[in-house]
Design brief:
Helix content is 39%, strand content 15%. It is of the alpha/beta class. The strands form two sheets. Strands 1, 2, 3, 4, 7, 8, 9, 10 and 11 form a nine-stranded mixed beta sheet that branches. Strands 5-6 form a two-stranded antiparallel ribbon. Strand 9 (267-271), helix 10 and strand 10 (296-298) form a beta-alpha-beta unit. The longest helix has 20 residues, at 185-204.
Amino acid sequence: MPRSLAALLAALLFLAPDADAQRMRAAPMTPAALRTRLEVYTADSMRGRMTGSADHRRATQYIANELQRLGLQPAGDDGSFLQRVPLTHTALDTATTYNVVAILPGSDPALRGEYVALGAHSDHVGVGRPVDHDSVRAFQLGLRRAQLAAGGRITPEVYASVRVDMDSLRRRQPRPRLDSIFNGADDDGSGAMGLLEVARALATERGIRPKRSVLFVWHTGEELGLFGAEHFTDHPTVPREQIVAQVNVDMIGRGGRGEERNGGPHYLQLIGSRRLSTQLGDLVEEVNRRGRYRWEFDYQYDAPGHPEQFYCRSDHYMYARYGIPIVFMTTGSHADYHQVTDEVQYIDFEKLARVTRFTRDLAVAIANRPERPVVDQPRPNPRGTCIQ
Protein backbone atom coordinates (compact mmCIF):
# COMPACT_ATOMS: atom_id res chain seq x y z
CA MET A 1 0.00 0.00 0.00
CA PRO A 2 1.16 3.56 -0.57
CA ARG A 3 2.39 5.15 2.62
CA SER A 4 0.45 7.94 4.25
CA LEU A 5 2.11 11.28 4.96
CA ALA A 6 2.07 10.38 8.66
CA ALA A 7 3.97 7.16 8.00
CA LEU A 8 6.57 9.04 5.96
CA LEU A 9 7.04 11.56 8.76
CA ALA A 10 7.37 8.70 11.24
CA ALA A 11 10.04 7.07 9.12
CA LEU A 12 11.97 10.34 9.10
CA LEU A 13 11.64 10.60 12.87
CA PHE A 14 13.23 7.15 13.18
CA LEU A 15 16.40 8.76 11.85
CA ALA A 16 15.91 12.08 13.66
CA PRO A 17 18.81 13.78 15.42
CA ASP A 18 19.15 13.63 19.18
CA ALA A 19 17.48 17.04 19.66
CA ASP A 20 14.26 15.81 18.05
CA ALA A 21 14.41 12.55 19.98
CA GLN A 22 14.88 14.55 23.19
CA ARG A 23 11.72 16.57 22.50
CA MET A 24 9.74 13.36 21.95
CA ARG A 25 11.05 11.86 25.21
CA ALA A 26 10.15 15.03 27.11
CA ALA A 27 6.51 14.80 25.97
CA PRO A 28 3.95 13.47 28.47
CA MET A 29 2.43 9.99 28.14
CA THR A 30 -0.19 11.10 25.63
CA PRO A 31 -2.06 9.58 22.68
CA ALA A 32 0.04 11.77 20.36
CA ALA A 33 3.34 10.52 21.80
CA LEU A 34 2.20 6.91 21.49
CA ARG A 35 1.04 7.46 17.91
CA THR A 36 4.45 8.89 17.02
CA ARG A 37 6.23 5.85 18.41
CA LEU A 38 3.82 3.35 16.91
CA GLU A 39 4.01 4.89 13.44
CA VAL A 40 7.78 4.46 13.58
CA TYR A 41 7.71 0.94 14.96
CA THR A 42 5.03 -0.52 12.67
CA ALA A 43 5.86 1.35 9.46
CA ASP A 44 5.90 -0.65 6.22
CA SER A 45 9.69 -0.29 6.24
CA MET A 46 9.78 -2.64 9.27
CA ARG A 47 8.16 -5.31 7.07
CA GLY A 48 6.21 -6.98 9.83
CA ARG A 49 9.12 -7.66 12.26
CA MET A 50 9.32 -11.40 11.58
CA THR A 51 11.26 -13.15 14.35
CA GLY A 52 14.92 -13.60 13.41
CA SER A 53 14.75 -11.33 10.36
CA ALA A 54 16.87 -8.26 9.67
CA ASP A 55 13.65 -6.22 9.89
CA HIS A 56 12.96 -7.46 13.40
CA ARG A 57 16.56 -6.74 14.37
CA ARG A 58 16.11 -3.11 13.29
CA ALA A 59 12.95 -2.91 15.41
CA THR A 60 14.74 -4.24 18.49
CA GLN A 61 17.65 -1.89 17.84
CA TYR A 62 15.20 1.03 17.78
CA ILE A 63 14.03 0.05 21.28
CA ALA A 64 17.62 -0.41 22.49
CA ASN A 65 18.65 2.99 21.12
CA GLU A 66 15.77 4.69 22.91
CA LEU A 67 16.62 2.96 26.19
CA GLN A 68 20.20 4.13 25.88
CA ARG A 69 19.08 7.72 25.30
CA LEU A 70 16.81 7.47 28.34
CA GLY A 71 19.75 6.39 30.48
CA LEU A 72 18.40 3.00 31.52
CA GLN A 73 20.87 0.32 32.54
CA PRO A 74 21.54 -2.37 29.92
CA ALA A 75 20.77 -5.89 31.16
CA GLY A 76 21.40 -8.05 28.12
CA ASP A 77 24.58 -9.85 27.07
CA ASP A 78 28.06 -8.34 27.38
CA GLY A 79 26.89 -5.02 28.79
CA SER A 80 24.37 -4.43 25.98
CA PHE A 81 20.59 -4.17 25.90
CA LEU A 82 20.32 -7.31 23.73
CA GLN A 83 20.11 -10.88 24.98
CA ARG A 84 20.86 -13.45 22.31
CA VAL A 85 18.13 -16.06 21.81
CA PRO A 86 19.10 -18.94 19.49
CA LEU A 87 16.14 -20.23 17.47
CA THR A 88 16.88 -23.89 18.07
CA HIS A 89 13.22 -24.85 18.42
CA THR A 90 12.21 -24.10 14.83
CA ALA A 91 13.14 -24.60 11.23
CA LEU A 92 15.08 -21.35 11.58
CA ASP A 93 17.72 -23.12 13.66
CA THR A 94 20.55 -21.15 12.05
CA ALA A 95 18.98 -17.81 12.97
CA THR A 96 19.51 -15.69 16.06
CA THR A 97 17.06 -13.27 17.55
CA TYR A 98 17.20 -10.99 20.58
CA ASN A 99 15.34 -10.00 23.69
CA VAL A 100 15.77 -6.36 24.67
CA VAL A 101 16.44 -6.06 28.41
CA ALA A 102 16.91 -2.96 30.58
CA ILE A 103 16.80 -2.00 34.24
CA LEU A 104 15.67 1.16 35.95
CA PRO A 105 17.44 0.93 39.36
CA GLY A 106 15.19 1.37 42.37
CA SER A 107 15.40 4.41 44.62
CA ASP A 108 15.47 2.46 47.91
CA PRO A 109 18.84 0.82 48.70
CA ALA A 110 17.06 -1.82 50.78
CA LEU A 111 14.70 -2.83 47.96
CA ARG A 112 16.54 -2.12 44.71
CA GLY A 113 17.89 -5.69 44.63
CA GLU A 114 14.32 -6.85 43.89
CA TYR A 115 12.63 -6.38 40.53
CA VAL A 116 9.19 -5.73 39.10
CA ALA A 117 9.30 -7.14 35.56
CA LEU A 118 7.34 -5.49 32.76
CA GLY A 119 7.06 -7.23 29.41
CA ALA A 120 5.74 -7.03 25.87
CA HIS A 121 6.78 -8.82 22.69
CA SER A 122 8.67 -7.18 19.87
CA ASP A 123 8.05 -9.59 16.97
CA HIS A 124 5.17 -10.10 14.55
CA VAL A 125 4.55 -12.33 11.52
CA GLY A 126 6.32 -10.58 8.64
CA VAL A 127 5.18 -10.38 5.01
CA GLY A 128 2.72 -12.53 3.08
CA ARG A 129 1.24 -12.67 -0.39
CA PRO A 130 -0.51 -9.50 -1.65
CA VAL A 131 -4.22 -9.34 -0.82
CA ASP A 132 -6.93 -6.72 -1.18
CA HIS A 133 -6.82 -4.73 2.07
CA ASP A 134 -10.46 -3.59 1.94
CA SER A 135 -11.90 -7.00 1.05
CA VAL A 136 -9.93 -8.68 3.80
CA ARG A 137 -11.10 -6.14 6.37
CA ALA A 138 -14.75 -6.38 5.28
CA PHE A 139 -14.65 -10.17 5.47
CA GLN A 140 -12.93 -10.25 8.87
CA LEU A 141 -15.28 -7.61 10.32
CA GLY A 142 -18.28 -9.61 9.15
CA LEU A 143 -16.84 -12.80 10.57
CA ARG A 144 -16.07 -11.11 13.91
CA ARG A 145 -19.58 -9.72 14.22
CA ALA A 146 -21.04 -13.14 13.47
CA GLN A 147 -18.66 -14.77 15.96
CA LEU A 148 -19.67 -12.40 18.77
CA ALA A 149 -23.36 -12.83 17.97
CA ALA A 150 -23.00 -16.62 18.08
CA GLY A 151 -21.13 -16.66 21.39
CA GLY A 152 -17.79 -17.44 19.76
CA ARG A 153 -19.03 -20.13 17.36
CA ILE A 154 -18.94 -19.84 13.56
CA THR A 155 -21.17 -22.22 11.61
CA PRO A 156 -20.47 -23.11 7.95
CA GLU A 157 -23.68 -21.27 7.01
CA VAL A 158 -22.51 -18.04 8.68
CA TYR A 159 -19.09 -18.35 7.07
CA ALA A 160 -20.68 -18.79 3.62
CA SER A 161 -22.92 -15.74 4.17
CA VAL A 162 -19.95 -13.54 5.06
CA ARG A 163 -18.09 -14.84 2.01
CA VAL A 164 -21.00 -13.77 -0.21
CA ASP A 165 -20.86 -10.26 1.27
CA MET A 166 -17.13 -10.07 0.52
CA ASP A 167 -17.64 -11.19 -3.09
CA SER A 168 -20.25 -8.46 -3.48
CA LEU A 169 -17.79 -5.87 -2.16
CA ARG A 170 -15.16 -7.02 -4.65
CA ARG A 171 -17.56 -6.50 -7.54
CA ARG A 172 -18.26 -2.93 -6.38
CA GLN A 173 -14.56 -2.16 -5.97
CA PRO A 174 -12.75 -3.02 -9.21
CA ARG A 175 -9.38 -1.57 -8.09
CA PRO A 176 -8.09 -3.50 -5.09
CA ARG A 177 -5.65 -1.89 -2.66
CA LEU A 178 -3.01 -4.59 -2.43
CA ASP A 179 -1.20 -5.09 0.85
CA SER A 180 1.26 -7.77 1.93
CA ILE A 181 2.78 -6.44 5.18
CA PHE A 182 1.50 -7.61 8.55
CA ASN A 183 2.29 -4.39 10.43
CA GLY A 184 1.15 -5.67 13.83
CA ALA A 185 0.13 -2.27 15.16
CA ASP A 186 -1.89 -3.80 17.98
CA ASP A 187 -0.09 -7.18 18.10
CA ASP A 188 2.10 -6.20 19.80
CA GLY A 189 3.20 -2.80 18.57
CA SER A 190 0.77 -1.29 21.08
CA GLY A 191 2.29 -3.18 24.01
CA ALA A 192 5.90 -2.71 22.88
CA MET A 193 5.58 1.05 22.44
CA GLY A 194 3.39 1.40 25.52
CA LEU A 195 6.16 -0.26 27.50
CA LEU A 196 8.72 2.10 26.01
CA GLU A 197 6.59 5.03 27.14
CA VAL A 198 6.43 3.55 30.65
CA ALA A 199 10.23 3.35 30.64
CA ARG A 200 10.45 6.99 29.52
CA ALA A 201 8.02 8.15 32.19
CA LEU A 202 9.67 6.31 35.06
CA ALA A 203 13.14 7.41 33.96
CA THR A 204 12.41 11.08 33.29
CA GLU A 205 9.34 12.27 35.19
CA ARG A 206 10.02 13.66 38.65
CA GLY A 207 8.64 12.17 41.82
CA ILE A 208 7.73 8.67 40.60
CA ARG A 209 11.02 6.72 40.73
CA PRO A 210 9.98 3.33 42.22
CA LYS A 211 11.65 1.89 45.33
CA ARG A 212 12.29 -1.51 43.76
CA SER A 213 14.08 -1.79 40.45
CA VAL A 214 11.99 -2.16 37.30
CA LEU A 215 13.07 -4.81 34.79
CA PHE A 216 11.91 -4.16 31.22
CA VAL A 217 11.95 -7.08 28.76
CA TRP A 218 10.81 -6.90 25.16
CA HIS A 219 10.55 -10.60 24.38
CA THR A 220 11.28 -12.04 20.97
CA GLY A 221 9.73 -15.14 19.44
CA GLU A 222 6.30 -14.85 21.07
CA GLU A 223 4.61 -15.53 17.74
CA LEU A 224 6.67 -18.69 17.26
CA GLY A 225 5.91 -20.14 20.70
CA LEU A 226 7.08 -17.85 23.54
CA PHE A 227 10.73 -18.67 22.83
CA GLY A 228 12.14 -15.33 24.00
CA ALA A 229 10.30 -15.39 27.33
CA GLU A 230 11.23 -19.04 27.80
CA HIS A 231 14.90 -18.26 27.17
CA PHE A 232 14.92 -15.23 29.47
CA THR A 233 13.30 -17.04 32.39
CA ASP A 234 15.59 -20.05 31.91
CA HIS A 235 18.64 -17.77 31.59
CA PRO A 236 17.67 -14.58 33.46
CA THR A 237 20.10 -11.67 33.56
CA VAL A 238 19.00 -10.83 37.12
CA PRO A 239 18.45 -13.33 39.94
CA ARG A 240 15.16 -15.02 39.11
CA GLU A 241 14.16 -15.37 42.76
CA GLN A 242 14.41 -11.58 43.08
CA ILE A 243 11.68 -10.94 40.49
CA VAL A 244 8.67 -10.19 42.71
CA ALA A 245 6.03 -9.97 39.94
CA GLN A 246 5.65 -9.69 36.17
CA VAL A 247 3.17 -7.54 34.23
CA ASN A 248 2.65 -8.51 30.59
CA VAL A 249 0.95 -6.26 28.00
CA ASP A 250 -0.01 -7.67 24.61
CA MET A 251 -2.56 -6.03 22.29
CA ILE A 252 -3.66 -3.04 24.40
CA GLY A 253 -4.90 -0.62 21.73
CA ARG A 254 -8.38 -1.83 20.77
CA GLY A 255 -11.29 -3.56 22.57
CA GLY A 256 -14.00 -1.20 21.38
CA ARG A 257 -17.69 -1.81 20.86
CA GLY A 258 -18.16 -4.53 18.27
CA GLU A 259 -14.66 -5.90 18.87
CA GLU A 260 -15.39 -7.70 22.15
CA ARG A 261 -18.80 -8.68 23.51
CA ASN A 262 -18.73 -6.02 26.23
CA GLY A 263 -16.15 -3.83 24.52
CA GLY A 264 -15.91 -0.10 25.00
CA PRO A 265 -13.66 2.64 26.38
CA HIS A 266 -13.46 0.98 29.83
CA TYR A 267 -13.05 -2.62 28.66
CA LEU A 268 -9.86 -4.43 29.74
CA GLN A 269 -9.17 -8.15 30.07
CA LEU A 270 -7.21 -9.47 33.05
CA ILE A 271 -5.66 -12.93 33.03
CA GLY A 272 -3.67 -14.67 35.75
CA SER A 273 -3.79 -11.87 38.32
CA ARG A 274 -4.81 -14.18 41.19
CA ARG A 275 -3.51 -17.53 39.95
CA LEU A 276 -0.38 -17.33 42.11
CA SER A 277 -0.98 -14.35 44.41
CA THR A 278 -4.36 -13.09 45.54
CA GLN A 279 -2.53 -10.02 46.88
CA LEU A 280 -1.45 -9.11 43.36
CA GLY A 281 -4.99 -9.48 42.05
CA ASP A 282 -6.32 -7.29 44.83
CA LEU A 283 -3.63 -4.68 44.14
CA VAL A 284 -4.65 -4.45 40.47
CA GLU A 285 -8.22 -3.69 41.55
CA GLU A 286 -6.97 -1.18 44.14
CA VAL A 287 -4.87 0.74 41.58
CA ASN A 288 -7.92 0.89 39.31
CA ARG A 289 -10.03 2.39 42.12
CA ARG A 290 -7.37 4.69 43.51
CA GLY A 291 -6.42 6.02 40.09
CA ARG A 292 -10.08 6.43 39.05
CA TYR A 293 -9.44 4.58 35.83
CA ARG A 294 -12.91 3.01 35.86
CA TRP A 295 -11.71 -0.12 34.06
CA GLU A 296 -14.39 -2.78 33.72
CA PHE A 297 -12.21 -5.85 34.03
CA ASP A 298 -13.21 -8.92 32.02
CA TYR A 299 -12.02 -12.07 33.78
CA GLN A 300 -13.85 -14.58 31.58
CA TYR A 301 -10.72 -15.66 29.67
CA ASP A 302 -8.96 -16.45 32.95
CA ALA A 303 -11.46 -19.18 33.78
CA PRO A 304 -9.92 -22.63 34.31
CA GLY A 305 -10.24 -24.69 31.16
CA HIS A 306 -11.30 -21.77 28.92
CA PRO A 307 -10.92 -23.01 25.32
CA GLU A 308 -8.97 -19.95 24.16
CA GLN A 309 -6.12 -20.91 26.55
CA PHE A 310 -4.92 -17.31 26.88
CA TYR A 311 -3.21 -18.01 30.21
CA CYS A 312 -0.86 -20.35 28.33
CA ARG A 313 -0.49 -18.33 25.12
CA SER A 314 1.52 -15.23 26.00
CA ASP A 315 4.89 -14.49 27.59
CA HIS A 316 3.66 -14.12 31.17
CA TYR A 317 3.30 -17.88 31.56
CA MET A 318 7.04 -18.39 31.27
CA TYR A 319 7.38 -16.35 34.48
CA ALA A 320 4.40 -17.96 36.19
CA ARG A 321 5.84 -21.47 35.70
CA TYR A 322 8.68 -20.42 38.03
CA GLY A 323 6.25 -19.22 40.70
CA ILE A 324 6.50 -15.51 39.84
CA PRO A 325 3.11 -13.79 40.28
CA ILE A 326 1.88 -12.37 36.98
CA VAL A 327 -0.88 -10.28 35.51
CA PHE A 328 -1.61 -10.25 31.78
CA MET A 329 -3.47 -7.19 30.47
CA THR A 330 -5.01 -6.98 27.01
CA THR A 331 -7.89 -5.16 25.34
CA GLY A 332 -8.68 -8.40 23.53
CA SER A 333 -8.95 -9.74 20.02
CA HIS A 334 -10.53 -8.13 16.96
CA ALA A 335 -11.12 -8.55 13.24
CA ASP A 336 -7.59 -7.41 12.32
CA TYR A 337 -5.77 -9.97 14.48
CA HIS A 338 -2.94 -11.50 12.39
CA GLN A 339 -4.18 -9.73 9.25
CA VAL A 340 -2.50 -7.16 7.02
CA THR A 341 -5.15 -4.77 8.32
CA ASP A 342 -3.67 -4.56 11.85
CA GLU A 343 -2.52 -0.98 11.23
CA VAL A 344 -2.07 2.25 13.13
CA GLN A 345 -5.21 3.82 11.67
CA TYR A 346 -7.41 1.41 13.66
CA ILE A 347 -5.76 1.93 17.05
CA ASP A 348 -7.69 3.73 19.81
CA PHE A 349 -4.87 5.97 21.05
CA GLU A 350 -6.87 7.48 23.91
CA LYS A 351 -7.41 4.00 25.29
CA LEU A 352 -3.82 2.94 24.59
CA ALA A 353 -2.60 5.94 26.59
CA ARG A 354 -4.86 5.03 29.52
CA VAL A 355 -3.72 1.39 29.56
CA THR A 356 -0.11 2.61 29.41
CA ARG A 357 -0.62 4.96 32.36
CA PHE A 358 -2.34 2.18 34.27
CA THR A 359 0.63 -0.12 33.59
CA ARG A 360 2.98 2.55 34.94
CA ASP A 361 0.86 3.08 38.07
CA LEU A 362 0.55 -0.66 38.70
CA ALA A 363 4.32 -1.11 38.35
CA VAL A 364 4.96 1.68 40.84
CA ALA A 365 2.39 0.27 43.28
CA ILE A 366 4.03 -3.17 43.21
CA ALA A 367 7.51 -1.68 43.45
CA ASN A 368 6.66 0.51 46.45
CA ARG A 369 4.96 -2.14 48.62
CA PRO A 370 6.89 -2.89 51.81
CA GLU A 371 6.68 -6.61 51.02
CA ARG A 372 6.64 -8.54 47.77
CA PRO A 373 3.28 -10.08 46.74
CA VAL A 374 2.78 -13.31 48.67
CA VAL A 375 2.50 -16.48 46.59
CA ASP A 376 -0.48 -18.21 48.23
CA GLN A 377 -1.61 -20.46 45.37
CA PRO A 378 -0.06 -23.68 44.00
CA ARG A 379 3.02 -23.20 41.83
CA PRO A 380 3.20 -24.83 38.39
CA ASN A 381 5.86 -27.34 37.39
CA PRO A 382 8.43 -25.25 35.45
CA ARG A 383 8.98 -28.16 33.04
CA GLY A 384 5.37 -29.31 32.95
CA THR A 385 2.56 -28.53 30.53
CA CYS A 386 0.67 -25.31 31.09
CA ILE A 387 -2.87 -25.82 32.37
CA GLN A 388 -5.44 -23.12 31.65
